[in-house]
Design a protein that fits this description.
The structure is a single chain. This protein is α+β, with helices and mostly antiparallel strands and 319 residues long. The protein folds into 2 domains: 156 residues, D-Maltodextrin-Binding Protein, domain 2, CATH 3.40.190; 113 residues, 3-Layer(aba) Sandwich (D-Maltodextrin-Binding Protein, domain 2), CATH 3.40.190. Helices cover 47% and strands 22% of the residues. It has 13 helices and 11 strands. It has a 3-stranded antiparallel sheet with strand order 3-11-4, with helices on both faces. Strands 9-5-10 form a 3-stranded antiparallel sheet, covered by helices on one side. Helix 2 packs across helix 11, helix 2 crosses helix 13 and helix 3 packs parallel to helix 4. The radius of gyration is 26 Å and the shape is elongated. The termini are far apart.
Amino acid sequence: MKKFKNLKSTIIFTLIVLFISTSLFSNGQEEETTQTIIFGDVSWDSVQVHNRIAGFIIENGFEGYKADYVPGDTMPIINGIIQGDIDVDMESWHQNVIEIYNKGIKSGNLIDLGQNMPDAPQGWWIPRYLVEGDDALAPDLKSVSDLPKYAHLFQDPEDSSKGIVYGGVAGWGQMKISEEIFNEYSLGETFNLGITGSGSALAGSMVGAYKKGEPWVGYYWAPTAVLGKLDMIRLKGSEYEPADVNILVNKSMLEKAPDVVEMLKKYSTTVDENNEFLAKMDDEGWSTEETAHWFLKNKENVWTKWVSQEVATKVKAAL
């Protein structure tokens, strides 16, 4: 009986060892065959939502991938892609860093897969209620050249003798263009050029004025939650050159994730679609992940064009 017990114990021990060894091997094999796609989580909401839309699709629709997200500003992210530390930038406004972009393309390390969204608008905006309706305070304000005769409406809180144009954010590349517009139209005689310390401060100045029905003029861009919710008009003469908002990848993606690259080449959205999901995100207080899920559930007609029917079926099931 004792010999039987020893034999039984030996068999159980052997089975346990075999199970553990098999599990370790399987896990190791999975780690070796799973490719991690690293997305650059630049600081604004739209790109972070796009990262999670693409991340959800590749994790649930394709085989052998998982997504990871690395936070950073524009310059570190694009440099990270060139160096191979980051795989994907889903929303590259590369005109703002054109020298680095050109250097990366020339080196062959940076691959441009084309537009995520076409012609994202930038420029100086005013509320529509200023120029339209029975109570419009500036019905003839159509262009930057019209601003001087309405300077009194946009009074600078720190200098009552002049109006204020919010030109943008300190340290942002776009400020140079705002300065050029300001000088081209000789606005210095009637306006001061305001510079905010952050994007949230710039948005806050616009939203605060809008809620009170007051005049406001200044730089902004789309897609954003703000322009998705407020009815604003872009002034003629202030239009920036249309921005190409493209998807960039490191060259290693061509070999390690060719099917993902093919999906990203087809990935395309509109400014209106971006404004819509950003406004929903802001209204509902959603996270970027929750917003991505909303998009995937409610915009099947958009994203199913990027993938095969088989992939689309898996993604829908995962949702």
